[in-house]
Amino acid sequence: MLPYRVRFYDIDSNQHVNNAMYFNWMIDVLGREFLTTHVPKSVVIRFDKEVEYGHEIESHFEQIPVENGVKTRHEIRMQDQIYCEANIMWEHK
């Protein structure tokens, strides 16, 4: 788990976090070693609630071994509520 504070450049013109930032938070927690040895094969993401400027969120994940690769399950949370979740299938480089 890694905590993040939403910054000015993370938001769009509607004052909500840009969708790409959710993905960045999800990927960042995986670490350099994992990211340099794996590539994403598919991503399924669901946005449940909007995150706004100044909010403090946490990026949680679990790694699940599967046939021919790895699956990661992600949640962006704030105060134990899920704001965004995703499943990413990875393969080794």
TrEMBL record:
Entries under InterPro entries matching the protein: Acyl-ACP_TE_C, HotDog_dom_sf
Domain Acyl-ACP thioesterase-like C-terminal: from-to ranges: 2-91
Pfam families: Acyl-ACP_TE_C
Name the UniProt record assigns to this protein: Acyl-ACP thioesterase-like C-terminal domain-containing protein
